Amino acid sequence: MARIGYARVSTLDQDLDSQLERLRAEGCAIIRSEKVSGASRDGRVELATVIEFLRPGDELVVTRLDRLGRDTRDVLNLIHECEQRSAFVTVLDPHVSTRGEMGHIVLTVLGMVAQMERRFIKERQREGIDRAKVEGVYRGGQPRLDRGHIATLHSEGHGPAAIAKALGCSRMQVYRILQACGRSADGASRAQA
């Protein structure tokens, strides 16, 4: 029986340290982590590795339920996959485990409440943005990537894949930024084309 920890944050600028520290303190000998959105399971390679690695009696440990996913159905599917492998899922905050029948009910309710809360947050955020636009104070979100740096790297002959790898982002983000800068991915400026 092994306790396997899984930690996740959504963006590159978020920190995994507190989750990793908590999982170590809980006795997780193996911990897998990644910086990727929890909106879907696409691209969550470390989570797939953990699920594949689970053996009967093992326990998948996460600090919070939303580390497994944002959608209740997706979280329940993950829990079901773990159970198909005769493994358990334990959430540390609040402490709930699928070892008992009550744990399943509590995890389902927690997942539904978390999903509903995310919807409320998005609604309040949208209302705040609309209000700020009306008042003329809305500036939009801060760009996470330095567009000038990407354009410079591209003009130096680096391709979108190399730029994405160097900056730790997706190629699609690089393509979008180059397009917004009026450059094509093959290096030609739109003004020259």
TrEMBL record:
Domain Resolvase/invertase-type recombinase catalytic: 2-136
CDD domains given in the database record: SR_ResInv (cd03768)
Keywords: DNA integration, DNA recombination, DNA-binding
Keyword Acyltransferase: no
Keyword DNA-binding among UniProt keywords: yes
Active site: 10 (o-(5'-phospho-dna)-serine intermediate)
Pfam families cross-referenced by the UniProt entry: HTH_23, Resolvase
Listed GO MF terms: DNA binding; DNA strand exchange activity
Entry's Gene Ontology BP terms: DNA integration
SUPFAM superfamilies listed in its UniProt record: Homeodomain-like, Resolvase-like
Family: Belongs to the site-specific recombinase resolvase family.
Protein's recorded name: Site-specific DNA recombinase
Annotated source species: Aureimonas jatrophae
